[in-house]
Amino acid sequence: MNYFYDEKLHREKVFRDPIHGQIIVDNQIIMDLINTPEFQRLRRIKQLGTSSFTFHGAEHSRFGHCLGVYEITRQMCNYFQRNYPCQHPDDGLWDDHERPVALCAALLHDLGHGPYSHTFEHIFHTNHEQITRQLITDSSTNINKILRRVSPDFPHQVASVIDHTYENPQVVQMISSQVDADRMDYLQRDAYYTGTNYGKFDLDRVLHVMRPVKSGIAFEISGMHAVEDYIISRLQMYLQVYFHPVSRSMEVILDHLLMRAKYIYQHPNDFEPDFTPHMLMPFFNGKFTLDDYLALDDGVLTTYFIHWTHSRDEILSDLASRFLNRRPFKSVIYDKNTQKLLPTLRKLIQTAGFNSQYYTAVNDSFKLPYDTYHPQDSNAQTQIELLQPNGDFIELSQVSTLVASVSGREAGDQRFFFPKEMLEMRNNIEIFEPIYEEFQSYIKNNHIINPKEQK
């Protein structure tokens, strides 16, 4: 790791940032990673995907978020080294030789995200975490070549932090835990750019009550209320921003738009023989390279969507227009009792002239605000440990009634999406009026109801 420190910049570089004020880079390795084409591509990937259709300020990129996660991790390293430096092996304190791998993993943790990543992944069966690891470990990438300047096995060490197998749990929990640099940056950043206050919490206080321990990272019990505030802020951001029904509706349209394009490409004789979106064809075929993946960004997809508004296929053209011009589907909440009514609603929508495969969808969004550790779970969460004055640890929900009240309880809803036209009176198409009226009889106060039970 000495090579990392040998490449210290003579004069530190500063990125002005609306969240952290200044993001400081004082190492040539970090600067060179930022300047790679693979990392610069993140400027062209929105952090919040379709949320900008709901919160118009949410145009920020994954580039800014990755820099922010790096900066928070840098501050953690500085604080740990100043206050809890390792005195001898296995004392559970901070070994600053871990700084290079922590900073590089923080900077590169989202490197493999694609355009509108979660929707894109669903349609084309890609995995941004797997691609992140590939970009770090593949010897052909600029990222890998720079990381190998530190040591031959350094790229694999960085990748192991991202897939949670790195030997030092302190480093892993810095980047991925229930209170990590990733979450702390995106909550503050997303709150700022969406113009909301839900995600704001006392970041400085949380950082200053952290301390390294043998099992990872713990928090001084005196800072419990700052951690509580963080947990509740995260819950509110999910419910008010990330799970917003309009953003989810635009994701549904995007999903169905790409699904229709894939179907047309795979059935050229039935639709458009000349339908050849070259940059997407490797993904339609299920055989893409890293270069194919890196060539895509939000702008590439948007350009195709503009072309598709003129498609001879009415469904593709209409869905592209709905997405580009922000014409979201409407949605209503359903539960296990009204779920049985969904086939009836789909049939009415089909009868009204909409292909129910492309013009309806169900979407459930739930989040655990805080989860205690269950070792039997396949993806068990590291719980938040508080350090008491006598040196004993106690799990957060054991002493926080606020966190206990939300611990292990999923928050969110299940929604059925459909064209807004189904709620409008179509006076110009009288033959469909009875269908619209029957459909609307199943909707009350944004919920699906059984009209027979209402009488």
From TrEMBL:
The superkingdom listed in its UniProt entry is Bacteria
> Domain named HD/PDEase: which ranges?
58-196
Q: Which GO terms describe its biological process?
A: dGTP catabolic process
Q: Kindly list the GO molecular function terms attached to this UniProt entry.
A: dGTPase activity
Q: Which Pfam families match?
A: HD (PF01966), HD_assoc_2 (PF19276)
SMART domains this protein is in? HDc
TM stretches of this protein: none
Q: What is this protein called?
A: HD domain-containing protein
**Which species does this protein come from?**
Limosilactobacillus agrestis
